Structures are given as structure tokens and as C-alpha cells.
Amino acid sequence: MSADKVFHPRSEGIPSEGVKDQYADGKAARAWNKFIGDSNQRTQNYKDFLVGLLKKNGCKRVLDIACGTGIDSMMLVEEGFSMVSVDASDKMLKHALKARWERRKDSKYDEWIIEEATWETLPQDIKNFLPGVTFDAVICLGNSFAHLLDEYEDQRTQRMCLKNFAQCLKPGGLLFIDHRNYDAMINSGATPGHSIYYNCKYPVDIKTSVLVVRGKPELVTLDYCLDGAFGDGEKSDFRLCYYPHKLEKFTAMLHEAFDHRGKHQLFADFKPIDQVPVPGFYIHVMEKGKD
Ligand code: SAH
Q1: Which of 138, 192, 278, 282 is deepest in the core (most CB within 10 A)?
Q2: Does residue 87's CB lie within 6 angstroms of at least one atom of ligand 1?
Q3: Atom number in ligand 1 closest to CA 37
Q4: Beta strand pairing status for 113-116 and 82-87?
Q5: Domain total for the chain?
């Protein structure tokens, strides 16, 4: 291990180096599909925000780079966008593939492209099935990017992935990327149980643990406990680990990924940031330089 690598203690349930797919055992994927996907339960605020900005900017071809079970992509397919959806987890993708298969007689769904790809090699992965294509918009939402735990102190893997995202955009294209308000979570040690993204009908309890290494928060572990998601009285627990992105640092990494020529806009829970004192989520919209 080189000197600039961060040491993550190998304790139970904390992914060790090289483990990428936190959904690989299928448990979280199944629960997630139930948790958010029982019906098209995206909140109206979320839909209005995303669809509104995409339409306002004339976006047509959209790449969802953390499509998971496909819930956001389906919302955009329904709205008439030409969707390409990728994810690193086959356990998550299988729910999206099933949803597309069930709707295949509808030409909108028949044209929906779903493939496996990872952020680390995104432009090459996309080139394999869609050579020469760039996108009007790339979305990476639902606190997805924080799944990438960088083993390097200088966050070089995350920075490289952000560059890959920018590379998939046309000049003038938009990247939508979000993260939870980790600044507030680290201060309070708590995670809001409600989500701005979905209307969940099950009670959700999220236990928050912060791993601090050499005085710096390195990892946030969220233990989700869903009551009744799988029938009477049955509980479903799963654990996900996240990189606790700080707002200021994350914004700087975005500017760097867009060669300091991108236009940055920041939203708090889909609203202008001065309207929400302590947001649950920050949503960044980066516009790629035009020349
Ligand atoms: N956007 C969806 C999924 C969120 S879960 C929603 O809001 O419901 C986060 C997703 O990011 C998971 O499906 C996970 O497999 C994916 N992911 C995590 N790391 C990834 C990586 N390095 N490359 C591609 N996908 C990744």
C-alpha cells in the first residue's frame, strides 16, 4: 500500500479495496427495488426539476450512468427522452431489464438501451455499444456517486470518473450529479429518513455511522431498515457505504473535471440553495464548455 492511500480497517460489512458492487449479493438490489420501485413513486418536485431543466435546455439524448433498477430512466422514457442507461451492478440491472421486457410492445421502451458499464472506463464501455455517440445530458442521481470509495487520499479515482462523465457530453451538455448533505450528516450523526426522490410507503430507519481516519471522516455507513417491505411483519435490512463528499471539495472537483470551463449551478433539494437552510441533498448541474 503506497503512502498516499487511505487505510480502511477491514471490519465486517465495510467493503475492502477493489470491492465495487455493493449490490452484488442481490439483497440490497431486491430491497431497493421494493423500497423505491413499487410504482412510479418519484416525487413531483424531483420530476419537475429534472424534466423541466432537461426540456428547457433542449436535451433529447440522455445517459443515466447509475440507472440501478431503472426507475429514473423509466421516468424519462415516459417523458419521451431517448435513454441510454448503464450501471456496474448486474443485480440492479436485472430489474431494469425485466421492466423493459415487460413493456417491450411500447416502442418507447423497445428503444431504451440498457448496458453494463463502470464509471472508471465509461467512455470506452459506451464506445463498445454506441461508437461515436455523445449525450445532451448525463445523470448520476440518488446519491450514487458517493458509492465510489476512493482508496487514494487525493481522490484521484473519483476525479478520473468525473472527467469520464464530462467526456460523454456534447459541448454545451449537462451533467446532473448529487450527493447527500454529508457536511450536515457528519455534524449531526444522523440521516433524514425521508427522501426527496421517492415517496416510500414503508417506514424507513437509517442508522448512520461515520468512520474517522486520522481526524478525517473517510466513510459513512448507512444501515437501512425497512419495515413491512416484504409482507406482514417482515423486516429488510441492508448496509451501504458512502464516501462523505464535502460540498466545497466536490464543487472544486467538478470544475477541475470540466477543465475550469464548465458552468456550475447548485440546488438544494431541487430548490435554489438560499431557500433551504439544511438540505438533505445537493444537486449540481454542470454545463460543458461549448468550444
Ligand atoms: N439512480 C438510482 C440508483 C441508485 S443506487 C436510484 O436513484 O434509484 C446507486 C447505483 O450506482 C447502484 O445501482 C450501483 O450499482 C451504481 N454504481 C456504484 N458504483 C458504480 C460504478 N463505479 N460504476 C457504475 N455504477 C456504479
Answers
A1: 138
A2: yes
A3: 8
A4: parallel
A5: 1
**Domain range enclosing 259:** 22-201+245-287
* pLDDT, average across residues 187-191: 85
66 Cα to the center of ligand 1, angstroms: 4
Residue 118, ligand 1, Cβ within 6 A:
yes
Q: Say what percent of the chain tops pLDDT 70.
A: 84
CATH of the domain at 105: 3.40.50.150
Residue 141 lies in a domain: yes
Residue at 40 is within a domain = yes
Is residue 227 one of the residues assigned to a domain?
no
pLDDT tens digit sequence for 164-179: 999 999 999 999 999 9
Collect all residues with Cβ–Cβ distance below 8 Å to 85 and sequence separation of at least 6: 63, 64, 67, 70, 73, 96, 112, 113, 114, 115
The residue whose CA has the least distance to atom 13 of ligand 1 is 68
Mutate to test the pocket of ligand 1, among 69, 75, 144 (most ligand atoms within 8 A of CB): 144
Spacing, Cα 148 to ligand 1 middle (Å) = 9
Residue 173, H or E segment: strand 169-180
Asked if residue 234 is part of any domain, the answer here is no
